[in-house]
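Lab notebook, page 48
Experiment: co-folding of the full assembly
Goal: obtain a model of how the components sit together before planning crosslinking
Operator: M.T.
Materials (sequences as entered):
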Amino acid sequence: MRFPLFVILAVAVRPSVLEAQLTARLSAGATMGTSLVADAILYDDVVALKTSVAPTIAIGLGYPISATHKLLGELRIASATLTGSGSAGANDLGALRTIEFSVMAEGPLPYHLRFQVGGGAIKYSPARAAGAFLDDAPIKPMVTAGLAWTKSLRPGLELQVGGRWGLHEFTTKTLERRGYSLAQRVHRLGITLGVERAW
Amino acid sequence: MKGRLACLISLVAVTACADIVPPAQREGYEYRQILGTDTLSFKWDPSLLPVKIWIADDSPLRSHLITAISRWEQAFVYGEFRATLVSDSSRADIIVRNAPPTSGAGLRLAAFASQCLGETTYQLGSAPKTLQLPWRVHVWPASNPNATGIQDCYRITVTHELGHALGIINANHAGALPTDVMYRDPVADGLSERDRNTIERLYHSRTTLTAVPRP
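Observation: model returned without errors.
Model output:
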């Protein structure tokens, strides 16, 4: 398991253009997400588990699969604060780190834009086992899509401004034990600024 | 083309799922205190968290208090209660002692287990609809401090009394069953689903009393 899934997939998909380049990218930005759980314990008091805007770093590797398209593997780490918010105020539940790994296809669009679409998994890693995370810190499959604007800084080096959307279903063993059923759709939106180096 | 179609189908499949569904029924018991024509209810405001609790370093209740705090904190999904132990009793919101109460002042909430006894008291403030901190929790041996089973009794009773200090202040323990830790003669070593439902309902209801910090 030392080799990332990206490498396995990259080897499995043969590049059709041999001169295409391997790329690496590093970016930083912020991620925000919708509520993890929302509940009306009493009719006039809706309470929700929310994450703050999270500082985010992302590293990625791109492997050419055609003259214009790449297979992109990316690791994205965001660190938010988790709060339980209701009409009485917000309760601090500590830090909540998320680790996303995704494999995406990336292709060109007009106006120096690139699209990304793919899937992967998101792992929740709370600072303390409390609230909904009392019994476990789940890992969930997710779908993701994004858009990146690029500008060449010099040959082999690009500036990238990216927007990323992700969707996954959230629930935990604690919530299931407490009688919650199904799962919450969680949308996440990230914006990053970074550079990409090609070899 | 097939790849794009697969992505699209995956996306539609995930977005089509429903949101999480909370439990439909939350059965609990009465937590409010009826005093004359007044209904008293209390909960810790988020601005007062973590609640500061004092207990003597060498108290035989100390480890049981830590267990009780953890039990009540874990009752909440949304972090409505947190507590921390403090070393200065004059700063504490709740004071826990392994001795019977020395004064009869304040409103009393008692528990009667077999090997130990418990009592929690609070005082109304001078201003209307206020509760003057601190809460005082007393848990002490019924007779022999080394009686068999007294540690279990301490653990159950401290959990019970801390439940009072969280706001379950019905003096008659109305509606609580023997399976609930808030039963008047507590025997349940841990919180029941009904205990959790009750405290959750309390912390999402409007309450009548506001805590007044110590001068």
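Interpretation: The two ends of chain B are 73 Å apart (CA to CA).
Next step: discuss with group before ordering constructs.
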